[in-house]
Each structure stands twice: as C-alpha cells, then as structure tokens.
Amino acid sequence: MNKADLIDELKNQNGFTREQAGTIVDIFFDSITDALEKGERVEIRGFGSVFVKEYKSYMGRNPKTGIPVEVKRKRLPFFRCGKELKARVDKE
Question: Please, what's the b/e burial string for 37-47 (b: 16 or more CB within 10 A of its CB; e: otherwise)?
Fold first, then answer.
C-alpha cells in the first residue's frame, strides 16, 4: 500500500472527497515528521512507535580503496512494532 492507496481507502470508507482524504493523510504524516525532527517519540498504541536514534561520528573505511574516511554524526528514524501488530501479522 502506498500513500495514494491510503488516501483512496480513507475516501471510500468515510465518504470524504479525494482532496479531504489527501489533506488528512498529509496532516497525519507531517505531524509525525515534525515530532521526529524535534527528537520526540511517536507512539501509536496497537501499531508501533517511531523514534530518532543518534549516532556519533566515527572513522570508517572506503571499501574500494581502504582509505579511512570520517563518517559524520547522524540521526535516523527507527520503527518498533507493537504487540498487536505483531500478532495480527503473524496470524495464520
């Protein structure tokens, strides 16, 4: 499922116009993105949580040349699946 499919599903199940459904989906994802930019944790009960993990800079190695390269510090989003989602996906 992609963003367009999600918009269509919201439109079909709730009688919204495509524009209204698109706005709702955009607000939802923009809110999550804004919270992650601020370093906040986003938790949706029954689905999972998204949080930002920070990595310090370190010396890596270019795999082609073997020359040491400094890898800058970075912040990456991580998703941790909730119990209910795990159970639904694992159901046979």
Answer: eeeeebeeeee
